[in-house]
Amino acid sequence: MTTRLAPALPIVGPVALGVILMLVGDFMFALNDAMGKWLVASYSVGEVLLVRSVGAFLILGPLLLRQGKAALFAAERPGLQITRAAFATADTGLFYAAVATMPLADVMTFYMAGPIYVAAISHIFLGEKVGWRRWLAISVGFVGVVIALRPSAASLSLASLFALAGSLSFAMTLVLARILRKTSDATLVGWQTLAALVAGVVFSVTTWETPSALDLGALLLLGVVSCSAHMLITRSLKLAPASTLAPLQYTLLLWAAVFGFAFFGNLPTPQVLFGAAIIIVAGLFLFHRQRVVDDGVPPKTVPRTLH
């Protein structure tokens, strides 16, 4: 009698698993952004920064303990570590200040221009070679930002300037992460989370409102969700090429539009959508050219933030 073996279940390969983890991480970042918008309607940006940083340390704490305190306090180039932490804190704080009054998708449109800023800044400060095709894409991307910004006296708002400044801070965070690529992710995120905690203490001194038990849980969960998303994306980059994963970041814009409409009744304006389309096309072309020229996008060009 012949025994028939059941067909083996297909095993997800590392690249496919990396794609899945990236998509889940991006979804969690978008969920974190929606939670942040809901919370800054009731609490100051400083208070949100403070409590969410405590929540993030619930995830980061064990990781930092496992790698030892020497990795945190003896990190390379401490001056640049502090500068990066300052930019990362500005990025997060300005993001929350912007979403307090702007639709999520509108704010995310500015942040989707991050890779465009990174390409330009890397050429200026890091001496990275950028060919004419990528300069053209950078210029087109800036046009998309200007269209989304709507820079007229009647439409230009303080919130949109917060979003623009935050996205530039985000780009500087990525550029400095390239320079500090020998530093572990846990150390990088540990320093920026500590900086956000300190900034939160300073800016919430005069604006503190004791949250309810439900809101306190939501504020702590904000840090847990964002830190978990970061770890998922970090793991995805170890499983799949960054050039494969980088374009998936634009799902953040899709989720921002979905969550913005579902939870806040906001829809991006046609002008913002048009600007976003230009930014996405320019960004995808930059990723393509990076892959052609360098045979792979450096992992640090993939946005990984703790919004």
UniProtKB/TrEMBL annotation:
It comes from the Bacteria. Keywords: Membrane, Transmembrane, Transmembrane helix. The chain crosses the membrane at residues 12-31, 43-65, 108-126, 135-153, 159-177, 189-208, 214-233, 245-264, 270-287. SUPFAM superfamilies: Multidrug resistance efflux transporter EmrE. The keyword Endoplasmic reticulum does not apply. The keyword Acyltransferase does not apply. Residues 17-149, 159-286 form the EamA domain. InterPro entries: EamA_dom (IPR000620), EmrE-like (IPR037185). It holds the Pfam family EamA. One of its GO terms (cellular component) is membrane. This is DMT family transporter.
